[in-house]
Amino acid sequence: MLTFQVIRVLILTGISFIVGLFLTPIVSKILYKYRAGKQIRGKEDAPIFNSLHQKKEGTPTMGGIIIWATVLGLAALFFILNLFLDGNFSMLNIVDRAQTYLPIAAMLIAALLGLVDDVLGIKGVGPKGGGLPMKYKILIYLLIALVGAYWFSVKLEWSTLYVPFFGNIEIDGWYIPLFIFVIVAAAFSANETDGLDGLLGGVSLFSFGSLAVVSFALGRFDLAAFATMVIGALLAFLWFNIHPARFFMGDTGSMALGITMGVIAMLTNTILFLPFFAPILVLESLSVIVQMISKKIFKRKIFISTPIHHHFEAIGWPESKVTMRFWIITVVSNGLGLVLFFLSRMIIR
């Protein structure tokens, strides 16, 4: 049984990678044809960011389409084939009401909303060069989180939080605000991390890898397969997104990845492990929050520029060095997180 599931996961990851590679030149050609180029914020609004990234003006964005279109397209294809061919595609079908309905729905909704934001940014609709202001993005995150919280709390009747080395603790009414916080924080953090070539794609690769291992260990094989399909698509995306990037992920990718990551963490009840699985996302969002508080209260900046990857750029680190070092931190942190996860399960048993 376990051997079969391992083989299944590996096959789905490989298919996702191959389809992503096939889809990339098609999406890339469309983005270049319609000049879906990234607009860099003006000098008045973000002078340091502008000076560091002005050369990237015009590079196509919305490359995140490759990731979610691959995963959702394959999920839909195998589901339909399995439905009409009397279960002959059950090995490849990952659509399951208990395990993958929510992450599939969350990825689709977030991706489409992010796509709208990207289109507005390309057309220059909106303040500071176009796109939705962050306060409206936060509002969108909240709405998605509210729907998810309702489903988890009311429909699935979830009300426990897994605390490492202690087990499940009843939190009752606190479950909904906790769910909302996790989803909004994950979406916001992913958006802030998507600022360098290959950065969000790379750190998300390891994060989804850990979530896949956790899902597999918990016996949620369809959810694990879904996570590894995201990994396959991310590998295809990164093939062209590493520095110098052929295209950028855009909000359609970052929003989909962040919210889906949060939903899987909730489904596996590993919220408290998420800082280990996504340390860079936590670091990036904290740097922004700390900078805003310092500027508001003390009227001075702590970092030269935020999110923090721009700070390291500003002090002279090459973009590829920042990305690779953040990848290394992510690998080490994910390894530690998985060790703690399995130790916790052994001790509680």
Describe the SSE topology.
Elements: H1 2-33, H2 47-53, H3 65-84, H4 101-123, H5 134-155, E1 160-163, E2 167-170, H6 175-193, H7 199-217, H8 221-241, H9 251-267, H10 274-277, H11 279-297, H12 308-314, H13 319-348
Antiparallel strand pairs: 1-2
Overall number of domains: 1
Radius of gyration: 20 Å
Oligomer state of the chains in this structure:
single chain
Q: Beta fraction of the residues?
A: under 5%
Main beta-sheet strand count, sense and barrel state: 2 strands, antiparallel
Q: How many individual helices?
A: 13
* Tertiary shape: globular
| Straight-line N-to-C gap | 22 Å
Please give the number of β-strands: 2
Question: How are the strands of the largest sheet arranged?
Answer: 1-2
Helix content: 55-70%
Q: What is the typical, i.e. mean, pLDDT?
A: 89
Compressed to H and E, one letter per element, the order equals HHHHHEEHHHHHHHH
SS content category: mainly alpha
What does this structure look like?
The chain has helices at residues 2-33, 47-53, 65-84, 101-123, 134-155, 175-193, 199-217, 221-241, 251-267, 274-277, 279-297, 308-314, 319-348; strands at 160-163, 167-170. It is globular, with a radius of gyration of 20 Å. Helix content is 69%, strand content 2%. The chain has one domain (2-348). The protein has a two-stranded antiparallel sheet with strand order 1-2.
Brief write-up:
With 349 residues, the protein is mainly alpha-helical.
